[in-house]
Amino acid sequence: MGRVAGKVAVITGAGRGQGRSHAVRLAEEGADIIAIDLCEDIPVVEYPMAGADDLAETARLVEKTGRRIVTRQADVRDRDAVKAAIDEGVAELGRLDVVIPNAGILPIGPTRPIGAFTDTVDINLGGVINTVHAALPHLGEGASIIVIGSMTALQPGHGDVSPAGPGFAGYRFAKHTLVEYVNTLSQLVAGAGQRVNAVHPTNVDTHMLLNDAVYKTFRPDLEEPAREDVDPIFTGIQSMPIPFVNPADVSHAVVYLASDESRYVTGLHLKVDGGAIVKQGL
Hints:
It is globular, with a radius of gyration of 18 Å. A seven-stranded parallel sheet has the order 3-2-1-4-5-6-7, with helices on both faces. Helix 2 links the parallel strand 2 and strand 3. The chain has nine helices and seven strands. The mean pLDDT is about 95. The protein is of the alpha/beta class. It holds the Pfam family adh_short_C2. This is Mycofactocin-coupled SDR family oxidoreductase.
């Protein structure tokens, strides 16, 4: 306990899923939290997004640990809104040490409109940049920026048109581009004693993965596929016999990168993928 005691972390997409997990796990280790979420559905996304009640539940779980939390509803596509949310959180909590631009979407399927590509890039890439750049003025020596990537970021095929549709193409493009962003920014802020790293999970047990659109994309041969129909396909992706990892598995890596245990770790692309990338010979 206390691995990030006294630190303040901002997390986007904190209403549920990985974002909530990161918030609670960091709070358990002593951090105060600025939790940001849109709390609205996005038209191109078939699965429901987190709502205001979800963000309130994140706050309840953080407060249960004894830590403080500031919640704000903001769209990561809106730099001014993100900046205002971060500024208000810092004003209340007194500092900012850890930045986790986690918010993301995956509107998957070959029949999705081109807006699935543009919205995904705007959120999964533009939202990361907006969050980090809005946070930078608040960061001092020892600060840690942790980009939530994906195993797709480490796979070849940059620029390919995916059979999973424009949303997945946008997802992969954003994650690929974030690799170079981490590599570049980590060098630029190193002189200030700040670090930039990425965590790249395989499939994660969240709404983004476990929804009807994903099931139908992976099992187009079935009229109404369910989770049990896709689990064998998911399991085949990793070297280890698992269909996906849990949000907590990613959060453990986040805590390490947020803590002073990793004080000289920067520019790292940490895989939490059950051996998915090495299985592909990459």
